[in-house]
Amino acid sequence: GVQLLSASALIRLALAFHALDAGAHALLLGRGGSAVAGMHGSAGSAMAAVPLIGSLALMDYMVYGPGSALLALVQPVLYCSLAALVQLGLAMTAGASLNGSTGEPEQPHVKRVGHLTSLGLNVAMGFGVARILAGAISISASTAGISVQWGEPLFATASLLAALLFAVDAARTLAGASTTTPAAGTAHVNGSSRPETPSTMDRVEATAMPAHSLALALLASHAGHLEVLGPDGSLPSALPPLAYGLILAAVALLCQLLLALAPAGPEAGVPHAQQTAQLPLQAGLALGLVGLGVRLWLPLAAVVVPGTLLLLPAEAREGLRGVLGAFGGAAGGAAEYLASCTQAYVKQRQYAKEVLHAQRADAMAAEVERELARKAP
């Protein structure tokens, strides 16, 4: 489809841009650092929107199918990709035209065009999100009121995460802040700078960043459960229980985002609120990972768990052994209790069968005696 072709071309170019940026930082060693920083800073808005554009392309393909060339002009993902490509081109132009002494661009019109392109990118993404939401929900009005019905819950959650990411990106554009742009007045020493107190927008962006991966996991789980759900996929009860782990993680991510919006940060307000919000997020991700299939998480656990154990300090390793020992003891006790209950149930069933056989034998013997008594002279 047109949406997947345009998004894949943008993603490939973004990966190439990342490789060029990393190679420049590694090889130039400060000789061209200002130009590289200018390119990376100018492309910050486009690079931050690339994962969202890819998710929008996948969701548009799942809802409306492959887009044809005749309808390419009404495809929002195509305009998103074009706007992001223009921004990347402007970033390369701005980075190449930087003055090495002042670090200021010599062509001010490039900055104005960049702002207009960023505005167009956000407008196109807004239309793309609205198009997906229009395909994911159905609204009916009657005399009793307005009814809003969502489709399959995994896809609906992914579409809501896309809308959330668009809102964060639009707020960042309106605020004129970019996480990839170095702060003004920060003294750079050997490529590093003194960290400053993050703003509310910085905390919101950092908190919402995992939503990209979570949306892709929801789409992957949705594609894996299409055969189970059937053609309509409108019954939440048709989902396996573990599939709701990713939905729980999305809800927990929203709670963390609300904590990040606090004026004094997530540390203010309720004590240990951040840790409390992280618990359902981690539990939901664990359940969702298991729900994606045994073939995925067993090899991943075989690689991640030993590496994590090797990197843990001795104190954490001892604590983990204690936790695993307590969990193993509880699991062993539960298994023994279950085995004893199973044995008692089996013995009770065997005793009931023996009693039933004995009663039938007594009834048959009594019947035979009655028959013999009738036949006797």
Automatic annotation (TrEMBL):
Region feature Disordered, mapped onto this chain: 179-200
Chain intervals with Polar residues compositional bias: 189-200
Membrane-crossing segments per the record: 42-64, 76-99, 119-141, 153-171, 242-265, 285-312
Keyword Transmembrane: yes
UniProt entry keywords in alphabetical sequence: Membrane, Signal, Transmembrane, Transmembrane helix
Annotated signal sequence range: 1-16
Record bears the keyword Signal: yes
Protein name: Solute carrier family 40 protein
Organism this protein belongs to: Alexandrium catenella (Red tide dinoflagellate)
Taxonomic path: Eukaryota, Sar, Alveolata, Dinophyceae, Gonyaulacales
